[in-house]
Write a structure and sequence with these properties.
The protein is an alpha/beta fold and about 250 residues long. It has a domain of about 120 residues: Rossmann fold, CATH 3.40.50.10090. The chain is built from 9 helices and 11 strands. About 30% of the residues are buried. The model has no long low-confidence stretch (mean pLDDT about 95).
């Protein structure tokens, strides 16, 4: 691994470009004089109402919804609109994080609804879910739903129904064919799949791979790639912190 520790000048982050320069990556670019580009390797497409009807899920059967992302909220309210279903005012919302909970203001009057949120995972919601164990939960998700949340709900015997409302799709990356980056940062196994769908003959060579989360680490290794920068780590809980530590070591 030592011979891979070469100077870093450019980084590709496989996420959508932030709306403004007030983000950790902009700060990192300025701090270490780096070129940081953004390009989402995957994107989300909604399942149309016509297709959703085939699953025979009756929205009126549910008393609560569990949101694991803003995408899940977007597509829940979209499908309700397409199905001409008026969400009752006493519907309860359980969100994995406060960020997702606050996002619901886009669709509902926040102060007048029953909204609960955790810190980041379903386990954080364990106590509040226990108090509402009799609810019938709808779980809007993608075709690659987060296994940890589903496993938690199953293990604890909650009455929940997964509803696939959107799909994760590989983006067209053909314009990156002849572009080289010192580091590519991945955040999901789907992004690794997209890399190889777009570039079946991809060779890592001197490109350093950064990956966030255990499932992404696994996907990197299963693809036969070298994982140079794993995150999170005890001393680097975020991707930007992990990259910061690495670049400071190799750019001495």
């Amino acid at each position: 691994m030592e011979d891979r520790k070469k100077k870093v000048k450019s980084i590709l982050v496989t996420l959508p470009k932030p709306e403004n320069d007030k983000n950790p990556y902009s700060d990192l670019a300025k701090k270490l004089n780096l070129k940081i580009d953004f390009r989402s390797f995957i994107h989300v497409e909604g399942v149309p109402a016509k297709e959703f009807r085939k699953d025979k899920i009756n929205l009126a059967d549910f008393t609560a919804v569990i949101f694991t992302s803003r995408n899940s909220a977007d597509h829940f309210f979209r499908i309700c609109e397409e199905m001409r279903y008026d969400v009752p005012s006493d519907m309860k919302y359980f969100c994995l994080s406060e960020t997702i909970a606050l996002y619901l203001q886009k669709y509902i009057q926040y102060r007048k609804r029953k909204i609960f949120f955790g810190k980041q995972t379903a386990v954080d919601l364990a106590e509040v879910l226990k108090k509402h164990a009799d609810e019938r939960f709808l779980y809007p998700c993608s075709d690659v739903a987060a296994e940890e949340t589903q496993r938690f709900l199953l293990d604890n015997g909650y009455d929940f129904t997964p509803a696939v409302l959107f799909r994760t799709v590989c983006s067209d990356l053909s314009d990156l064919a002849d572009v080289f980056y010192d580091i590519i940062a991945f955040f999901s196994p789907s992004s690794i799949q997209s890399l190889y769908k777009n570039f079946p003959d991809f060779k890592q060579n001197d490109t350093r791979i950064a990956a966030f989360g255990a499932t992404t680490h696994k996907a990197v290794l299963e693809a036969g790639l070298i994982l140079d920068i794993p995150a999170p780590m005890p001393d680097a809980p975020s991707m930007t912190m992990a990259i910061d530590e690495y670049v400071k070591q190799v750019n001495k």
